[in-house]
Protein: Radical SAM core domain-containing protein
Amino acid sequence: MNARPGSTWQWQVQNRLTTPQDFAQAFGLGEDWQAFAQQASSRLVLGVTPYYAQLCQAVPALLKTILPDPQELVLAANETSDPMAEEATRPKAAIVRRYPNRALFLLCNQCATYCRYCTRARLVGDRAQQLGKKQWQEGLDWLAQETEIEEVILSGGEPLMLSDARLEWILEGLKKIPHLRFIRFSTKALAVMPQRITPDLARLLGRFKPLLINAHFVHPCELTPQAAHAVELLLAQGIMVSSQSVLLKGVNHQTEILAALFRELYYLGVRPYALYLCDWIAGASSFRGDLGEAQKIHGALRQILSGPMLPKLIADPPGGKAELSAQVLEGNQGYLLTDWQGKLVPYPKVSGPNEKQDPRFL
Structure:
């Protein structure tokens, strides 16, 4: 019996919208837009699954994430093609190492859907940057020699564009390296192609615990019944699921939208982990808000969400991640902390051994 059209991830990949004409027909765009989109595709290729295209038709905020904008072709101040300086820490084609104890393993430079704010626009969709078994083996060999590394993050592109058989080969190779204790996937598939999380894939991933799926969601409308089912399949196999989001102007740059997103993720069993500032990737100025604005939004979220629902607010400059935690001021007698209401409250320093103790505690 043949699968219903759209029900399999392979069908979603094979029937993606990939040309300006496809986008124009789906979203009612004119010939002038098509001419511009052809030019913009030289920066980042076009591509969206039929499943996510249908979501974008219903939610204009999501459409902004996949639709080229004229500002893409303007290089704003401080923008660069490699905002995290990954190329300087890329010892192998498939490896990026920015931290002593963990490394990024790039499995694929293709995506099911291409986000216009992608921090790896320089790599994804480029046939000259293809990754395959030769590059994966070189990555495994390199990881085996770097004994300080205990965690590997499988990313891309979209790592779940690979077949189950290829993922199994890679995961088995990683498990043979004794100092690699933790495996993490960084994926957008649950949002744009939840059909990829099949029972077979969930069982396969469950063999390699402890394993974390870090899913990329940016809007509560992405949390469809299909996405919820994908999460259920993973959790049933004992796989941890967390989320990372990007703060995007015109998409989710409002406290209410983000609060709804993080509440619903937590309800589904997904721990909101990170809310990133949009990287300084060339062509993404229309998405980027100011750091101060981001802190205000995060502070407002702190007032209305419980601790487990509140992700960290993070910037990702070339030197590594910087958590933008609430302000702490230090004085002679102690500290001033910023509480959940945004108020400064005193917090004492730990007493030294020679300082006078309260007689009530002697």
User: Anything to note?
Assistant: The mean pLDDT is 91.
